[in-house]
Design brief:
The complex is a heterodimer of chains A (233) and B (350).
Chain A (H helix, E strand, L loop, with lengths): L1 E10 L2 E11 L4 E6 L5 H8 L9 E4 L2 E2 L5 H6 L2 E4 L11 H8 L9 H10 L1 H5 L10 H13 L5 E5 L7 H16 L3 E6 L2 H7 L2 E6 L2 E7 H6 L1 H7 L3
Parallel strand pairs in A: 3-8, 3-9, 6-7, 7-8
Antiparallel strand pairs in A: 1-2, 1-4, 4-5, 9-10
Helix pairs in contact in A: 3-6
Chain B lengths: L9 H25 L4 H26 L7 H18 L6 H24 L4 H26 L19 H20 L1 H11 L1 H6 L4 H27 L9 H14 L4 H17 L4 H18 L12 H13 L5 H15 L1
Helix pairs in contact in B: 1-6, 2-6, 2-9, 2-10, 2-11, 3-4, 3-5, 3-9, 4-9, 6-7, 6-9, 7-9, 10-11, 13-14
The chains are: A alpha/beta (233), B mainly alpha (350).
């Protein structure tokens, strides 16, 4: 479904992503794991069009999406939940969700809004509340709900566990699993490698801008090198 | 959904506003043409209207879009000179002035596109400095273009004189009405929501599939357009244009109106645009202390109400009427509390 082929991304003169290739197949949960600064978020931002790759290509459902602008990529069915939640703090929960469906016609979204509320009952309780007053976990749910409102084929999540209490992290990951079971393909970037690998089908391990290992998630969980580097022995 | 009244239907709401605004225009116009309000004060009232247009239009870029442009006077200058030249060239005809205003707005909007596309790639202080530079460039160009190119166009520092003084109370406040209506309508639409979402969080807006470049430019250009119209009105009100009137201080003055009124509140912009223009005129006798008072007011407001007088609150006459009707229906005594509850439920049920 998503095919990233040999991308190289630079921040000024810094070579952040060095010839990375990977793919995500329909129905999978694929995770990119790696330490701080390995380039995980950079890769996601490149796929979603916020950053440009100097070389290589990115194709999404047989369409080349490298070097097209972000809003067209969203319209093509690829949604990103940006790092650090980034909800519209001054708008209500419901308005946030409506913004998520910006690329679609206003009359076809109410059903999807209902299904987001079914998935996140917490948001329904707070639909008239200003997003800035939500807790961190609720904001993460809102950011995910908002991304779902664009009806994506592929959902990219950037560090959904960041800054959340362990119990909330588990809740969020359960939801990711449910979403996947309901048919959404997922590309997950995480520092919490254990959590990510436990729900993923496949994983890629990143180190300083390069993919060093890729395997089935269950194998990576038992891989000694990965264990040592990311899972605390 | 946009919050709608549950009591007064939409067309009626527009009608109420239009009727009241027309009544206001009519009464004031009668007073002015009848001589009850002197010519001097009617000129002041027109300049209040011009300030309101400037503040409301800058509020679009500052309050709604969340940018900090410091070159609003530059757009005003472009509009003023464009309108003035047209008015001078085709004086006399009744439709010259409206056309001149429109042309002033369009040329300013064109400059808005030219400046906006590179400027809006920058953020915060960088954008402020670029637009500040633009404002200064416009002023310097207007000052020197005749000498350098050998025209007799802007007449440099001597000023463009003998512009027909066609700005009247009526035209000014019709423009005020149009400005507020257009910007209000844009902001209540889907485009307005996109503009607000950019202010809230640009990256999130982008990840929602909003074409941020387009909407930033749109907000900026609409803002520039109305600044140009205000410039045209200014030209017709004063009758003489001098480049130094459109310097950095003018831009700051407009920004102060927006900040004082509350960034993101159209009502605030209208209010502080009016007050800050009227006050210096009313305080002519205390001219020496004017700037001191002005600065003190700013300091005090920023300390005690950093979001500006109105915050992001917007006054809605119909909202007020709704409350009133509810209160009357709810009876006296504790009815007030109930009415608010009913209204909240009404909103939640929408």
């Amino acid at each position: 479904m998503l095919k990233v082929n040999d991308i190289n991304v630079f921040y000024g003169s810094i070579h952040a992503i060095k010839g990375v290739s990977f793919e995500v197949n329909k129905g999978e949960i694929v995770t990119l794991i790696g330490a701080n600064g390995a380039g995980k978020s950079t890769i996601l931002n490149t796929v979603s069009g916020l950053l440009k790759s100097k070389t290589g290509s990115i194709t999404f459902i047989d369409k080349t999406i490298s070097n097209i602008v972000p809003h067209k990529i969203v319209a093509a069915g690829l949604a990103q939940v940006p790092e650090g939640r980034r909800v519209f703090l001054g708008m209500t929960v419901e308005e946030n969700l409506e913004m998520g469906a910006f690329t679609r016609k206003a009359n076809e979204i109410s059903e999807d809004m209902d299904s987001v509320y079914v998935r996140f009952p917490r948001l329904k309780e707070r639909r008239k509340q200003i997003a800035g007053t939500l807790s961190g976990g609720e904001q993460q749910m809102l950011a995910m709900g908002r991304a779902l409102m664009s009806k994506p084929e592929l959902l990219m999540l950037d560090e959904p566990s960041m800054g959340l209490a362990p119990i909330l992290v588990e809740q969020i990951f359960d939801i990711i699993k449910e979403l996947n079971a309901a048919g959404t393909t997922i590309l997950l970037v995480e520092q919490n490698a254990q959590m990510a690998l436990s729900i993923a089908d496949r994983g890629y391990v990143l180190e300083t801008g390069k993919i060093v290992t890729s395997a089935k998630a269950s194998d990576l969980l038992n891989n000694d090198a990965v264990k040592k580097a990311y899972l605390g022995g | 959904m946009i919050k709608k009244s549950t009591i007064i239907p939409m067309p009626l709401r527009y009608l109420i506003n239009i009727v009241l605004f027309a009544a206001f225009l009519f009464v004031m116009n009668t007073l002015i043409t009848g001589g009850t309000i002197s010519k001097y004060y009617s000129g002041v009232i027109s300049s209040i209207g011009i300030s309101i247009i400037l503040a409301v239009s800058l509020n679009m870029a500052t309050g709604y879009l969340g940018q900090l442009p410091l070159g609003h006077a530059g757009f005003m200058a472009v509009g003023a000179y464009t309108s003035a030249l047209i008015m001078k060239a085709a004086a006399g005809s009744l439709i010259t002035f409206p056309l001149a205003l429109l042309a002033g707005g369009l040329v300013a909007a064109l400059f808005g596109i030219l400046i906006g596309i590179p400027a809006l790639k920058l953020k915060g202080d960088y954008l402020a400095i670029l637009t500040l530079g633009f404002g200064q460039i416009i002023m310097v160009v207007l000052l020197n273009i005749d000498d350098v190119l050998g025209f007799k166009l802007t007449r440099g520092a001597a000023g463009l004189q003998k512009i027909p003084k066609t700005t009247t109370f009526l035209i000014t406040f019709i423009c005020v009405g149009i400005t507020c209506f257009v910007i209000h309508t844009i902001m209540k639409s889907r485009h307005g929501r996109a503009i607000l979402s950019i202010r809230e969080n640009e990256i999130a807006a982008e990840s929602c599939g909003i074409n941020t470049t387009y909407y930033k430019t749109l907000g900026f250009v609409v803002s520039a357009f109305f600044a140009g119209v205000a410039g045209g009105l200014y030209a017709g009100n004063i009758g003489i244009l001098n480049p130094s009137a459109f310097g950095f201080m003018k831009s700051i003055e407009i920004l102060v109106m927006v900040v004082l009124g509350g960034m993101g509140s159209m009502f605030g912009s209208v209010l502080s645009g009016g007050v800050l223009t009227a006050l210096p005129e009313l305080l002519r006798d205390f001219d020496k202390y004017r700037m001191v008072v002005y600065s003190l007011v700013l300091v005090v407001v920023m300390i005690f109400k950093p979001t500006g007088l109105m915050g992001t609150y917007d006054f809605s006459l119909n909202g007020l009427l709704d409350k009133l009707i509810l209160r009357l229906k709810g009876g006296k005594g504790d009815g007030g509390g109930k009415a608010v509850l009913v209204e909240k439920e009404g909103k939640a049920n929408e």
